[in-house]
Design brief:
0% strand; globular; single chain
């Protein structure tokens, strides 16, 4: 299975389903992302990167804004559950049926996400194992949507499906993520340049933060579609 073919198939899915995917992505990912960018204060730049003081400042920022960040993440999780269920539940349910099915799976998705994040946090002490685990956990969400498994079963199933493809799946996850980060960085860089030039305005603030949110939304949608394609191929043995 070539990575280029997977991205081509994800692109074809986007073209054929964009009338359905775009509103869902806009509602469940773009708007929460834009709200965070517009409403939360920017994280203070670390005076001494890598120091304990820098870590304490980052933790304090996360603690002070935890409510908004968690709320946005929950909405985005719901969006992922809906899209996975829409394309992977047996019989291709209608949007109404998808909402009902997704509601029944939210708890499993949330618990699986917590377990995956806990494992990645522990493994992050050694960077390489953490990156590899990202690849092995690549299909946890798609498994829950398609096979109605418990969180632990879904993690085990994802590890089974990605056997021998851990680094391949990591790359498949990293490409959309990096593309989104580039888009966010470019938008942020242009806006910072305008601020330094004294040309800051409410319109510019909204426009460039909107571009950043759009870039991260593109990365989110592409990641989900790639996971759907990969799950379909690996679960069918192709």
């Amino acid at each position: 299975m070539k990575l280029s073919n997977v991205f081509a198939m994800a692109g074809a899915m986007w073209r054929s389903e964009r009338a359905l995917v775009m509103p869902l992505a806009g509602l469940f990912y773009f708007l929460p992302s834009l709200a965070l960018l517009l409403l939360l204060p920017g994280a203070p730049p670390p005076a001494d990167p890598g120091s304990d003081a820098a870590l304490d400042a980052l933790l304090a920022y996360a603690r002070d804004n935890a409510g908004a960040i968690i709320s946005a993440n929950v909405v985005q999780l719901v969006g992922a559950v809906i899209l996975y269920t829409l394309f992977l539940a047996p019989g291709r349910p209608t949007l109404g049926e998808t909402m009902s099915l997704a509601a029944a799976r939210i708890v499993s998705f949330a618990l699986a996400s917590i377990l995956v994040m806990a494992a990645l946090t522990v493994s992050a002490l050694l960077v390489v194992p953490a990156l590899y685990l990202i690849g092995r956990f690549f299909l946890v969400g798609t498994v829950i949507a398609a096979e109605r498994r418990t969180p632990v079963e879904a993690i085990a199933r994802s590890i089974e499906l990605t056997r021998g493809r851990g680094w391949w799946c990591f790359i498949a996850a990293a490409v959309p993520f990096l593309a989104g980060q580039v888009a966010v960085s470019v938008a942020g860089g242009f806006y910072s340049a305008l601020v330094l030039a004294g040309v800051d305005s409410a319109v510019g603030h909204l426009f460039f933060n909107g571009l950043a949110a759009l870039g991260s939304t593109f990365a989110w949608v592409l990641t989900l579609l790639v996971k759907i394609v990969v799950y379909r191929r690996l679960s069918s043995g192709t």
